[in-house]
Design goal:
Elements (H helix, E strand, L loop, with lengths): L12 E4 L12 H9 L2 E4 L2 H10 L6 E3 L5 H13 L3 E5 L12 H9 L3 E4 L5 H9 L6 E6 L4 H11 L5 E6 L4 H11 L5 E6 L7 E6 H10 L6 E5 L4 H10 L3 H10 L4 H12 L3 H8 L6
Parallel strand pairs: 1-4, 1-5, 2-3, 2-4, 6-7
Antiparallel strand pairs: 7-10, 8-9, 8-10
Function: Catalyzes the 2'-O-methylation of the ribose of cytidine 1402 (C1402) in 16S rRNA.
GO molecular function, one term: rRNA (cytosine-2'-O-)-methyltransferase activity
Catalytic activity: cytidine(1402) in 16S rRNA + S-adenosyl-L-methionine = 2'-O-methylcytidine(1402) in 16S rRNA + S-adenosyl-L-homocysteine + H(+)
């Protein structure tokens, strides 16, 4: 167990600073003050952060911290922090470490017992959620789904029975394909919301069923940063799963006819149904449960 006292004067501090997701006026007063006073700013992209610093007349030094250089940068930053320096970490937009780089530095600081202090502020997922009209509690933040169709559909199958509102980030170029996959895995009448260009002048909410949004995207390409929110499992899906679910043995046999080895098929069906492998194994081999 480790206990953190965030404001001990004798140690350096890592501040996690949220930055605006579009509108620069969403930057907090406290965030500006800490960026201005920091000995160093660790930025996902120094060019992007420099625009923010110029807007608020901040002259602090920057160094990049991203997925390609964090192994090199972290020892440098730890050395400065141990010397009592203050480092402010930012991503290009929103909260550091939420679908952005930064978690590795946080973990390293915690291991070295260096204070990690996060500020509240802009985050696209929750900003979209509270205006979506979908149930805010409970909700489940997923972030970016896999890009390949099979991998994406497998992830969606793992989420299909969740009752929480689901939050995703998605590229506008992939959004149509993602919603098409959702209509195949989820019930097409689930309510969903596309939130586009949050806090910017072209902010837009598209609310409807998955089927309606799919039809809209087939006719109307969209641009800009997107959040996609989908309601949790609906009653029609529960009824369908109870009345149309194939017996486990039939599911296994279908995979075997598709070329799976028996043990691999059993393992896959267990995963799809949220069961232990032994349960499916026993059912397939007509063995009594002990």
């Amino acid at each position: 167990m480790k206990k953190q006292k965030s404001y001990k004067d004798e140690t350096g501090k890592l501040y996690l600073i949220p930055t605006p997701i579009g509108n620069l006026e969403d930057m907090s007063v406290r965030g500006v003050k800490i960026l201005d006073a920091a000995d160093l700013i660790a930025s996902e992209d120094t060019r992007n952060t420099q625009k923010l610093l110029n807007h608020f007349d901040i002259a602090a030094e920057q160094k990049s911290l991203h997925e390609h250089n964090y192994k090199q940068r972290i020892p440098e930053f730890l050395k400065l922090l141990k010397q009592g320096k203050t480092i402010a970490q930012v991503s290009d937009a929103g909260m550091p470490s939420i679908s952005d780089p930064g978690q590795e530095l946080v973990t390293a600081c915690i291991q070295e017992e260096i204070a990690v202090i996060s500020l509240p502020g802009p985050t696209a997922g929750l900003t979209a959620l509270i205006a979506s009209g979908l149930t805010a509690q409970p909700h489940y933040f997923y972030g970016f789904l896999p890009r390949k169709k099979n991998e994406q559909q497998n992830e969606l199958k793992n989420l299909v029975t969740m009752k929480a509102t689901l939050l995703f980030y998605e590229s506008p170029n992939r959004l149509k394909n993602t919603i098409t996959n959702m209509t195949e895995v989820f019930h097409e009448q689930r309510q969903a919301v596309i939130c586009r260009e949050l806090t910017k002048i072209h902010e837009e909410y598209l609310r409807g069923t998955l089927s309606e949004l799919k039809e809209y995207l087939n006719e109307t390409p969209i641009k800009g940063e997107c959040c996609l929110l989908v309601e949790g499992q609906i009653e029609q899906e529960k009824e369908n799963s109870q009345t149309l679910q194939e017996p486990l043995k039939v599911q296994v046999e279908r995979l075997i006819t598709e070329g799976f080895k028996p043990n691999t098929a059993i393992k896959e069906i267990a995963k799809q149904n949220g069961l232990k492998k032994q349960v499916v194994y026993n059912d397939y081999h007509d063995l009594k449960q002990s």
